[in-house]
Amino acid sequence: MTKRPRRNRKSPALRAAFQETSISPANFVLPLFIHEGEDDAPIGAMPGCYRLGWRHGLLDEVYKARDVGVNSFVLFPKVPDALKTPTGDEAYNDNGLVPRTIRLLKDKFPDIVIYTDVALDPYSSDGHDGIVREDGVIMNDETVYQLCKQAVSQARAGADVVSPSDMMDGRVGALRAALDAEGFHDVSIMSYTAKYASSFYGPFREALDSNPRFGDKKTYQMNPANYREALIETAADEAEGADILLVKPGLPYLDIIRLLRDNSALPIAAYQVSGEYSMIKAGGALGMIDEQKVMMESLMCLRRAGADVILTYFARQAAGVLCGMGSK
């Protein structure tokens, strides 16, 4: 037998030398749930995650993340029902929760990277990512008009990367034009290019109370059965000026991550969503799996598939492992 692949696996030193994929805290973006209150509120469906008080709890979480090398964050607001409207106008209030939070974080940590979510669902009384017509249709162009105002407001506050997660047609080009018109040429766009109508989002929607009040999101989010359709979205987002392409969810869609990696020179992001996180947490709590090992393997798999950055609720915990500090 002349071919023995095991020869290259026979010692830790050889395995390390030939390892094809690496991962570091620099690859992580930590999602942060924020709310208007002062106290942190635990999220039942996401053990270890909280709606953070937008001043004290938020700052403490960012301090801890930076201690283990995580310097990128994405903000998701829990908006009071009283501020929700059919057109989601609170989304572009310059004194709203997200702009205030951006300014606070940039004042305390000027070197961090702040990603923002561009979508109407946290602000909509209907719970959809877009404006709903009387007959229940999600209106595309009217929604994009609102999203442009939202992205400009976030950029004005100091956002580094705006991230349209709405899946409306043409929104990347419209956002780029709106940002450039206001002088925000250096603000990047991370487009949710292949965002699927997935069942893995449940815990997230509990965290933000953003479930649709009727129907589902299948007329704008992608069909989980579709593969080639992701190439259509990729071509459109590239042509419209996206800087980063994102796939969501992550682990169940490794083939889509690889598809985008093989067909685009742009950076690829993957979102390890709330359902993925909660399954690993639940399995670990029940003793069915080793939480830490499965966590690290899942993140490595996302990197191996082609993700340059990973949005993950495990960011601080995984970075602690990589830094030799356990699950700090």
Explain what you see.
With 328 residues, this protein is an alpha/beta fold. The chain has a single domain, classed as Alpha-Beta Barrel (TIM Barrel), CATH 3.20.20. Helices cover 38% and strands 17% of the residues. It contains eleven helices and twelve strands. The strands form two sheets. Strands 1-4-5-8-9-10-11-12 form an eight-stranded parallel β-barrel, surrounded by nine helices. A two-stranded antiparallel ribbon has the order 6-7. Helix 5 (171-181) links the parallel strand 8 (161-164) and strand 9 (188-195). Helix 3 runs parallel beside helix 4 (140-157), helix 4 (140-157) packs across helix 5 (171-181) and helix 9 (274-285) runs antiparallel to helix 10. It is globular, with a radius of gyration of 20 Å.
What is the CATH-assigned architecture? Alpha-Beta Barrel
Distance between the termini: 47 Å
Q: Please, how many domains? A: 1
- Number of distinct helices: 11
Structural class: alpha/beta
Tell me the name of the CATH class.
Alpha Beta
Average pLDDT, all residues: 95
Any idea what the shape is? globular
Largest sheet: 8 strands, parallel, barrel
